[in-house]
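Q: Is it fine to ask for two folds in a single conversation?
A: Yes, each is treated on its own. Send the first.
Q: Here.
A: Result:
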Amino acid sequence: MSHTAHIPSHRKPRQRASTTALRAGVAGGVLSTIAVAGAAGPAQAEPVTQTIEMPTITEGLSTAVAASAQATQQVAHDLETQAQQDAAAAKAAKTAKKAKAEAVRKAEAEKKAEAAAKAKAEAEAEAAERASRTAERTTLSASSGSSGSSGSSASASTTSYSSSATGSAASVVAFAKAQVGDAYVSGGTGPNSWDCSGLVQAAFRSVGVDLPRVSQSQSTAGTQVSLSNLQPGDILYWGGAGSAYHVAVYVGGGQFVGAQNSGTGVVQASLDYDPPSGAVRVL
């Protein structure tokens, strides 16, 4: 055995043939690729750059969006306007309803006030009439006796008085005489109880003449006539013209029929029994 047989060798072990071949193939392929690329490089044309203009859609889109926004805004405006109109209409209706109710209330109040004033005026007139007769006509029989005793003297001394009535005047006289004996009630308008102006008004209404309701107005409802020239159907009044407190109907022969007071009721009496202040002729 050689003396060098056990000395390890410092050589690198030989690579496998297959690995070496693979590496050589890869290196060769790379070099070939580079060579080909280098050879072909100068012969290629420069790349062509072409700009393709894409359709612009943003302008149409913005117009559509703007139109949609405007339409939405218009709808909102219309809704707001309609709401305001509805609110205004509701407010106007409420105001009109309130005004109507207030007008009705005022009308009723005025009507009540007018009725109260009228009733007060009538009551005052009747009170004045009763006060002026406190010493007279205590009973119907007493007034009838007084009327009988004074009636003849009145007929003898006042020959200008007419004792016969015709036409509408006759109807007024007949109506008044038919109520003699009825009760006197303040504010009474018949058919069985009367106050003085209520009786006179009803007598003339029977012939289609509409007189005012109260004595004051009835005393100026016609033409003023002299007490010395009376005719049946004339209205007699006591007090001043326009401020009378009592009225009656002249029935001819120096007699009148009137609703005097609660003590006598409706009576027929002589003018001398209770001389009137004046007279008016309606018929």
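Q: Second one now.
A: Result:
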Amino acid sequence: MGIAVGVNESLDYSAIKTATSTTENSSADLQNNFLTLLVTQLKNQDPTNPMDNSQLTTQLAQINTLSGIEKLNTTLGSISGQINSGQSLQASALIGHGVMVNGSQILVGSGDTTPFGVSLDQASTATQATITDASGKIVKTIELGGLSAGVHTFAWDGTTTDGTTAADGKYQVSLSASNASGPLVSQPLNYALVTGVTNDASGAVLDLGTLGKTTLANVRQII
């Protein structure tokens, strides 16, 4: 690249930024271009009208900042890769284990039922679980009492309101909670079995079979 700076001309720093940003990709390239222009300027400057030192200092500081940001990005990228690897190892240990995730499903089969749970942001003085069948009919209402803030897991014994055993199949649970201030937000949780682990750009992904996929961040409790 040819550079010509005449006597009494001063470096156009904004032009340097524009030119290098469109043709170069790293702070090293920017430094090389800047130093080339600087040497040319020093060779041709008018002794009676020397370069503005404050402008030079500012530009050098900006270049050093860019270099530091590039190094920081490289370091963060390396740390992110290590975190993803660690997540994958942690997630692989969950294969074959049950987890509680957001959802309202309860499965009943051969007298066994999958757990259900609730997540509360605030402590409740009264909490109730209502279990319905596929048609929406209420088959059981369970009083859970007062609960502290956080995640709680429960087991339904599979009996209906009239004392009979619920038929095998899929049921839904809804939660309601309240305290002295009034109704509370209650997030229902359902059980899922981790059958496998894969990776994508965001890290480890848990395969929950028919319930789909989720990340470690969405696991509320490990059973």
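Q: Anything structural to flag on that second result?
A: Two points. Helices lie at 13-23, 27-44, 53-92. Residues 1-11, 19-24 have pLDDT under 50 and may be disordered.
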